[in-house]
Amino acid sequence: MRRAMRGSYMVIALVAISISLGGRWVGAQVHHVVASDRGWDPSSHVGSWSSGRVFRVGDKIWFTYSATQESIAELQSIEEFESCNISNPIRMYTDGVGVTLDGEGTRYFASSRPESCRNGLKLHVEVLPTQPKPETQTTVSSDLLALAVGPTPSGSVHLKGVSTLLWIVLALLCFIST
């Protein structure tokens, strides 16, 4: 009797988790280290480093630089970016940490030192929306699922995304506990 109650609680918990996640995985973040090994330096050709890269909402850009010698200005417009006008930045990054790309659109970053900016130490990125993961269907045999939630009206059940993983784990837990 206790095993049946415990199994019921597991089913309820997993159903609640599955519903709250909407049956989908959250898109993975990508961490981009600007100019890779060379870091935030005029000789690293930051502009060419970014060409061909895809930046999405939720990704993070890491600027590797010495916080005692450099800081990064996030600029509002293409005009400020092209002219290296850093007098009115949106934000100043002074601690050498990453920047989370939290919205779609173009973001402009430049060295806070005008001479470095004019020497090419600036970066603009086009941030695209998150890419939804393609949903795949998995068929779980009715015998395995019956151990977790009882009989089903059809011969198989189709589950998607996170739900599939949660149901399989639940079925294995129920099977082990019997």
TrEMBL record:
Record key words, sorted: Disulfide bond, Glycoprotein, Membrane, Signal, Transmembrane, Transmembrane helix
Signal peptide per UniProt: 1-22
Span of domain Phytocyanin: 30-129
The keyword Methyltransferase is annotated on this UniProt entry: no
Top-level division of the source organism's lineage: Eukaryota
GO cellular component annotations of the record: plasma membrane
Molecular function as annotated in GO: electron transfer activity
Residue stretches spanning the membrane: 157-176
PANTHER family on file: BLUE COPPER PROTEIN, OS02G0720100 PROTEIN
Name of the protein described by the UniProt record: Phytocyanin domain-containing protein
Protein species of origin: Tetracentron sinense
